[in-house]
Specification:
There is one protein chain. By secondary structure, the chain is of the alpha+beta class. It has helices at residues 8-17, 25-32, 36-49, 73-79, 81-120, 128-141, 174-187, and strands spanning 52-57, 66-71, 146-150, 156-160, 191-195, 204-208. The longest helix has 40 residues, at 81-120.
Length: 209
């Protein structure tokens, strides 16, 4: 699946909103010099993509409430993807320089368990297959896309169709390893990565026993 793209007009709205108090449609219309409909359509698309959030401001008295808009954390990543691609690999190189592979493994373990704890606190099922389904629902609520297919021998294939960590990828695949270890800790079964977007595959795929 292709990465989410944003139109030039949408990117302009994100730049107008980021780092500022929430704004109404009218303020954006004045700043951009386009029609209200054009701005509203772009905002609807940005909200659906997760780059902008909308909430209602209720005015004093009997005035009609109206919507205000502000950017999300995802919008910051959208504006500075190059910096992430530069900084995260540099961090991993520093970790290897300071503590070698042993320190890197400890960090991968600690981070993956922290992520697993976050999802485990929200998952109520006990059986691995049901836990996997609930994890997919949680990922979907965060804007991610993932599928699971049951194969022969009680094995499941988990396909992470959108990778939230793609801009943080490093040569040693430590971010991928964190994702794999997190999945194993949540489902409670060994996990093996069988495909990776960094290798040109359509999505990251994991086989779960």
């Amino acid at each position: 699946m292709s990465e989410i793209t944003i139109s030039p007009a949408g990117l302009r709205i994100v730049k107008l909103l980021v780092g500022r108090p929430p704004q109404a449609v009218g303020e954006l219309v004045r700043a951009m010099g386009v029609t209200r409909t054009a701005v509203a359509d772009q905002l609807d698309e940005l909200v659906a993509q997760g780059y902008v959030e909308r909430y209602i401001q209720r005015l004093p008295g009997r005035g009609r409430p109206h919507h205000l808009y502000q950017t999300t954390e995802a919008a910051l990543a959208l504006l500075f993807p190059g910096n992430q691609k530069l900084m995260v690999p540099a961090i991993w190189r520093a970790i290897f320089d300071i503590g070698g592979e042993e320190l890197a493994k400890k960090i991968v373990k600690r981070v993956s368990l922290a992520m697993a704890d976050y999802y485990n606190a929200k998952i109520t099922a006990r059986q691995p297959a049901e836990r996997l389904r609930q994890l997919i629902e949680l990922l979907a609520a965060e804007g991610g896309l993932a599928d699971a297919v049951e194969g022969s021998g009680g094995r499941w294939t988990f396909c992470r169709r959108t990778c939230p960590f793609i801009s943080m990828a490093d040569d040693q695949r430590n971010v991928c390893l964190i994702d794999k270890e997190m999945l194993s800790a949540v489902v409670g079964r060994p996990v093996r990565r069988t495909a990776c977007r960094q290798d040109g595959d359509p999505c990251c795929t994991f086989e779960i026993e």
